[in-house]
Amino acid sequence: MTTDVRSATRFANSKWAERKQDFLIVSSFGLWAVLLGFSPVLAINFLMGS
User: Fold this and answer.
1) pLDDT at position 10, please?
2) Can you give the pLDDT of all 50 residues of the chain as single tens digits?
3) How far apart are CA 22 and CA 25, in angstroms?
4) Average pLDDT of the chain?
5) How many other CB atoms sit within 10 Å of the CB of residue 19?
6) Which of 2, 21, 39, 43 has its CA 20 to 30 A from that of 29?
7) b/e sequence 24-41, b meaning 16+ C-beta within 10 Å
8) Would the pTM count as exceeding 0.70?
9) 43 touches 49 (CB < 8 A)
10) How many Å apart are CA 49 and CA 11, to the nearest integer?
11) How crowded is the C-beta side of 29, counted as CA atoms within 13 Å?
């Protein structure tokens, strides 16, 4: 029994597209890290009244 494995057309097939996808993934993780790290600082400042 053999299976025919074809590369899916929805996935990136060039180096430029892979780099672009990697950049978007890393930047989205960075954005969430900044938001989650900065929200407690804003909450404390808001609760302290300044």
Assistant:
1) 66
2) 666 666 556 665 788 888 999 999 999 999 999 999 999 999 999 999 85
3) 5
4) 83
5) 11
6) 43
7) eeeeeeeeeeeeeeeeee
8) no
9) no
10) 50
11) 5
